[in-house]
Fold this sequence. Notes:
Order of helices and strands: HHHH
CATH class of the largest domain: Mainly Alpha
Shape: rod-shaped
Radius of gyration: 25 Å
CATH architecture of the largest domain: Orthogonal Bundle
Largest sheet: none
Structural class: mainly alpha
Helix content: over 70%
CATH superfamily of the largest domain: Winged helix-like DNA-binding domain superfamily/Winged helix DNA-binding domain
Low-confidence stretches: none
Number of helices: 4
CATH topology of the largest domain: Arc Repressor Mutant, subunit A
Number of strands: 0
Mean pLDDT: 93
Strand content: under 5%
Distance between the termini: 59 Å
Amino acid sequence: xxxxxxxxxxxxxxxxxxxxxxxxxxxxxxxxxxxxxxxxxxxxxxxxxxxxxxxxxxxxxxxxxxxxxxxxxxxxxxxxxxxxxxxxxxxxxxxxxxxxxxx
Length: 103
């Protein structure tokens, strides 16, 4: 199971990488150097930094707010599909009950 880091620790780690990014040849190298010092996996830190850059319009990608909206819409679609299946089953049931040929 993945470790959960407090939000403020994540934000501080990302800020540290972004502040010292010019000292390294890439984001990956910066995360490999800084991550272990903070007790954070370098790949986790790199992912956080990448998402922070997307949120700040410094890199292309889907922002955190957009990701949240997509999750909400997917949940809503799933709920609506489930409701439609229930309504279809109910309409079939009642159609059979009201069928005059069954009497």
